[in-house]
Amino acid sequence: MNKSNDILKRLELLHPKKIDLSLNRLRNLLRKLGNPHLKLPPVIHVAGTNGKGSVISYLRSIYEKNGLNVHTYTSPHLIKFNERIRINSRLVNNKYLSSLLEECEDKNNGQSITFFEITTAAAFLAFSRIDSDLVLLETGLGGKYDATNIIQSSLCSIITPISMDHMNFLGTDLLKIASEKIGILKKKSIIVLSKQKKSVRQLIRNEVKKKKALLFEEGINWKIVKVLKNSFILDFCGNDFEFEKPSLYGNHQIENVSTALASILAIKKFKLQMKKINLGIKSTIWPGRMQNLKGGKLKKIIGKNFDIWLDGGHNIHASEILFTEIDKWKKSKIILILGMVSGKDPVKFLKKIVNKISLLILLPIDDHQYIHPYKIKESLNKSLKDFKEIETCVNINEALKLIYARFKKGKVLICGSLYLAGQVLKNDGFKIN
To answer: Would you state the pLDDT for residue 159?
Structure first.
């Protein structure tokens, strides 16, 4: 019996997933817990729409390979909740997680609070009690009113590319979304800015001036100047550094790792060795992001003539990245398997890539509010009339059997949701350590 799972299920039932953009509930709970958020090691705080998780994974791997102790808080998890909280690089164990959650639940005493808020409090409690060199902190949704932004200071704030996502909570205007995301910027701290649209850049520059912070902006203070066969050159403040290419698949990962490296070079707090930085880049693992599923249970269903790729991308920016990658697969039959949670726009997501695929298979997503496959099919039939090859299946195993029966070989891409990615990894027998 996993006690922590029972507590998590109870917290989900007691505190619905409805998001109320306010930090007062969390502030009250943290006060009762002794304000652990004010007793953290130096924090690197990451917000944005795409690439947050990858950037944090690179940072964690690079710092760890250089001998530093690192706490990490990310979301959502793929297979089990423990993935969200890493204490000095190790997933929080069930026993300690249970004690943290019980303590938070006891101090909260039945007061209204969201699942994300109370679990963030549990993470801060752990991070404040166990010594470490730094904390890597990923925002959950926005920035300004995100539970992670209860912290009062940070060593560095990183803003990854901002695009349209979570419009039902953050607004339908890009600058409104950006205004929420940059709410994490702190006074007199270091700010590292990834590639952004012009209007977003200007908004951030204005905010940085108000905060009297130090800005390191992509394209101005740092940029990728050359991509070679096995390495790339990053110009940082007029100095060129050559780094090895990451093992994670896709050209966009060079941009993600460059953001991480720019922040490392900007911070200067920790003495790192170039050899160990490159070792960290090469050994970074981030499941569910253009991940090739090679040796698991799913590959046995479909056989050696098919490649299975998994990506948690679910917004327009992610679909543009997928378009770039599958454009390289021109000689192969491409079968897309898609599942999306409520609030997403499958038509906009698929519009650019749908003409490149031979078959679209739609799936439900377990344990989450999802867009019913028949609703997606109906929307696509109205909006993308040229595309008729759409099937629905009840799960990934059935989808792969359908593909095997219909095609001799090809490439299978599963995408549309990180929750779907987690479901697929679980079915594949994948373990996250």
So the answer is: 97
Mean pLDDT of the region 22-51: 95
Q: How high is the pLDDT of residue 227?
A: 96
Q: Is the distance from CB of 370 to CB of 396 less than 8 angstroms?
A: no
What was the pLDDT predicted at 314? 76
Between helix 115-129 and helix 24-32 the angle, nearest 10°, is: 40
CA proximity to 131, closest of 231, 232, 39: 39
Label residues 385-422 b or e (16+ Cβ within 10 Å = b). eeeeebbbbeebeebbebbeeebeebbbbbbbbbbbbb
Sign of the alpha-carbon torsion through 357, 358, 364, 365: negative
E-strand spans in 218-284? 222-227, 231-236, 239-244
The overall longest dimension of the chain from CA atoms, in Å, is 62
Take residue 214 and report the two structure tokens written for it.
Answer: 């130090």
Query: Measured between alpha carbons, how far is 342 from 249 in angstroms, rounded to an integer?
Result: 28
Q: What DSSP element (H or E) covers 100?
A: helix 94-108
Under 8 Å between Cβ of 47 and 159 = yes
Identify the CA nearest to 179 among candidates 146, 156, 155, 212.
146
Strand, helix or coil at 121?
helix
Per-residue pLDDT reduced to its tens digit, 297-332:
999 999 999 999 999 987 888 888 888 888 889 889
Q: What is the pLDDT of residue 166?
A: 46
CA distance linking residue 125 with residue 115, whole number of Å: 15
Angstrom distance (rounded) from CA 374 to CA 388 = 14
**Backbone torsions φ then ψ of 138, nearest 5 degrees:** -105, 130
Two tokens at 413?
């891409």
pLDDT tens digits for range 146-186: 999 999 999 999 999 998 654 545 556 889 899 999 999 99
- Lateral strand order in the sheet of 306-310: 291-292, 306-310, 410-415, 334-338, 359-362, 390-392
Nearest CA to 169 out of 51, 24, 47, 22 is that of 22
What's the confidence (pLDDT) of residue 172? 65
Report the 10 Å Cβ neighbour count for 220.
12
Residue 385 pLDDT greater than 80, yes or no: no
For residue 144, the one-letter residue type is K
| Cβ 263 vs Cβ 221: under 8 Å | no
User: What domains are defined for the chain?
Assistant: 3-282 (3.40.1190.10), 291-428 (3.90.190.20)
